[in-house]
Amino acid sequence: MPIMEWKSMIRFLANYKPRFYHQLVKRELIEQKIVKYNTDGDCRGNLGIGSYDFFLGNEEGDLIYAQGDNIGFTTNVVAETKAILEEIKYYVSKDIRTIRVETDSLLMVNILNEDWKVP
Q1: What residues have CB less than 8 Å from 111, skipping those under 6 apart?
Q2: What is the rounded distance in angstroms from the CA atom of residue 87 to the CA atom of residue 79?
Q3: What SS3 state is found at 5?
Q4: Burial 16-27 (b: 16+ CB within 10 A, else e)
Q5: Distance of alpha carbon 81 from its chain centroid, rounded?
């Protein structure tokens, strides 16, 4: 934002409308005895204040558990990685052995499938 005089700044802030983003997530039913995790990590700008979240659902599509947190100044890749790391910590602590991870990060999908090397 350019340097402004007070009157201009007040006018700018009075007319400011924040942008909200959303994404519809379609949950698909999964086979029994498999736990499904959906993850997301993001940051405001691609070096900015970041957060992660993940949620766990069962084969009926019911929400079992959700977790998220702010992770400070970071990048999108770190935020996506943190989401997957935190979900892995959770399922290990609950002795969950078979999972299906869903993420919107093409980078993380290809790394987890061992198609790409870790940067």
Answers
A1: 117, 118
A2: 13
A3: coil
A4: eeeeeeeeeeee
A5: 9
For residue 86, give both structure tokens.
């935190």
Stated as kind and residue range, the H or E segment containing 99 is strand 99-103
For residue 101, the cross-strand partners are 37
Q: What CATH superfamily classification does 31-112 receive? A: Ribonuclease H-like superfamily/Ribonuclease H (3.30.420.10)
Q: pTM score, two decimals?
A: 0.65
Q: What is the largest CA-CA distance in the chain?
A: 62
Quote the radius of gyration of the chain (alpha carbons, Å). 19
- Could you give the C-alpha distances from 77 to 39, 46, 83, 104, 107, in angstroms and in order? 13, 9, 10, 11, 8
Per-residue pLDDT of the chain (119 residues; tens, 9 = 90+): 466 677 877 787 788 776 766 566 555 555 556 666 777 788 887 788 999 888 887 767 788 889 999 999 999 889 988 998 998 898 889 887 777 778 888 888 888 888 988 87
